[in-house]
UniProtKB/TrEMBL annotation, chain A:
It comes from Streptomyces hainanensis. Belongs to the binding-protein-dependent transport system permease family. The keyword Signal does not apply. The chain crosses the membrane at residues 20-40, 77-99, 111-131, 160-182, 219-239, 266-287. GO terms for cellular component: plasma membrane. This is Sugar ABC transporter permease. PROSITE patterns: ABC_TM1. Keywords: Cell membrane, Membrane, Transmembrane, Transmembrane helix, Transport. InterPro entries: ABC_transporter_permease, MetI-like, MetI-like_sf.
From TrEMBL, chain B:
The lineage of its organism: Bacteria, Bacillati, Actinomycetota, Actinomycetes, Kitasatosporales. It comes from the Bacteria. InterPro entries: Bact_solute-bd_prot1, SBP. Keywords: Signal. It comes from Streptomyces hainanensis. This is Extracellular solute-binding protein. Residues 1-29 form the signal peptide.
Amino acid sequence: MRRTRGSRSAARRWRGHLYVLPALAVYLAFAVLPALRTAYLSLFDWDGVTLGRWVGLANYREVVVDPVLRRAVLNSLALVGFFSVLPVVLGLVATGLLAGHRRRGMAGYRFVLLLPQVVPLVAVGVTWRWLYGEDGLVNQALRAVGLAGVGRAWLGDFDAALVAVGLVGAWVSSGLCLMLLLSGVGRIDPSLYEAARLDGAGPVREFVSVTLPQLRGELAVALTVTTVAALAGFDLVYVTTNGGPGEQTTVPGLLIYRLAFSEGRVGLASALGVVLGCLVLALVAAVNRLSGAGR
Amino acid sequence: MADARRPCRARGALVAGAALLAWALAACQALTPGSAIEAPGPRAAPSATAVPDGDVTLRLEFTDAPPMVDALVAAFEARHPRVTVEPRYKTFSDYVRSLGLTMTSDSAPDLAQYAVGMGELAAAGHVLDLAGYRAAYGWDASVPPVSLDQLTAGLTSGATGGDALFGMPAGLSMTGVYVNRELAARAGIDGPPATLGEFEEQLAAARAAGLTPLAVGALDAGGLHLWAALLNQTVRVDDYRDWVDGVAGATIETPGALAATERLVAWGRRGFVDDAANGTSQVDSTARFARGDGVFLLNGNWAAGQLADVLGDDLGFFPMPGEHAAGPTVASGFGFAFAVSSRTEHPAAAGAFLDFLASPEANVIIAEHGFLPGDPDAVPPPTGVFADIAEGHRRAVADDGITAFPDFAAPAMLDALRSGVQKLLADRVAAADFLASTQEVWRAAHPG
């Protein structure tokens, strides 16, 4: 009797796995297997058509040695500052100012803030290319306030291009970060603020001791999403500068595309993709560890 | 303690497993990506010019000038009612990226627009050698031979023993310098320059007058057009052609190329080139020139229609002048050409289509759509800036001075030159280093 019940519950447990199977199959077929295949292809010298040649880790050696590829990785790390750190800091400041206040018409604000996130990145890129152009709105504004000398074709300037692209990214991510943080603040138990106030905490103390720790989960999500966008990004750079001037704004995503599709070096492109993937995972793991979200 | 050891053992097992997997995969030939494709079918076209009797359908893939292709197809079908041509348009990036796969697949189109990469496909036998047709149809009489010589991929024909031929142009292109005559007059410039030195004086005069001297769209391909235009004046044309064709031992690290590259850097330094060039695309730089910003513009004949609509009689055109007034006219240009797949079942019908492209009727259609006709005598004499362009092209053809665009030298060359010229214009790289890295890109594509 007891035995039968035991085997029945085991069967039930297996039936549980059965329910996961469709999702698991899709995940394996469309996420895990392609990733493994990419890793496998990275060990070949292959043009995408004719027979590939096994080269072992030679492609990875080239990723490390080639100055252009290294440069691209550094650029994307710099972009993390713009896509991720800057918007989160801005979001925190705004949240600190808004937290604890009754807000009217928040839905309207949210809509406006999230708008950059809703517009396709290609459209965002084209629009900003015009704004940054020689006769664009940015230069017109500078001229209007008597700073014509500062004006330039921003995306074509060796010193300004990466910052210009980064600021577009900051513009895109800021809304998302603020949205996440604001909704997180809404979840915080008001009694915590009350208690802090009773203990004589000022607004800054309140922010550091109550708001910030309570927002750890939201911060982890915001940092993760924007870091991935910065590191794996392709569309924004492709549309605005195509990696130029020189290699000032070249990012790994752009090089992977070029290597695989226009230069026919699928192996090297895959190796760069694997390295980029590992880099993203490492950074995301670090973010999660710091925020304690994994616990 | 036990806890710390477990991940370690697991990692060891993982590494061993991965190594085993890698060994197994390397050993297993069947898992190697790609396939060793042998090009089937004939590699050379027959030398007869007969058009088949039966109903034939030709599939054609292309990426440029859809209205012109439609017009040419319609005119061809009217003349050969039993041959149907099915054009299939792809966007430029799709076309170039998929060209290798398309032409090596069993469903390769009969006709395909010639593009970067076609030379390698031809060398591998996937493109039909048309040298037999060139002789049989007498194409040299109706197309400038220099434009056919660009389509040889540097190979010798197995059929005729002479140069191979892997495409037939339907319309030609050429780059050069547009001038806004009204602005030029304001800067005291009264006519096209006879030499490069004179052109530099005019650029300096334009700058002194507070105008933008030379507009270039170096955000994309405009920079390499300027570099090529200067190369044409100081590099031996045959050396350059060998380099673009990937002939073994060819190099761009020559004194002539160095002089041209240093001139480009000097133009950037002296403010001859638009300060905003690196941040301006070709389309945008053309639009700004049309709005009256810029005395000169470096671009191709494809921009003439758009510019003439706005600037009218103020617009002029001349090929980049040489170092000496008596020297030959050398300009970059290429044919909008079609190649034939070696998998085609209808080489005779494809040959008839290509020959139609050289007919007077086709030349008129080509000229109407803004391309340079292969045979200028077959079309009504052009006027305005179009006359300037036709005259410049006639001179370059007469001097055997049409050279292919430098990005044809290797698949990776377009991106390398775009970013390289941006660095030259911003004075961020030494001319010699730029040439060395350019040659490195070339060597990667032509290791032999």
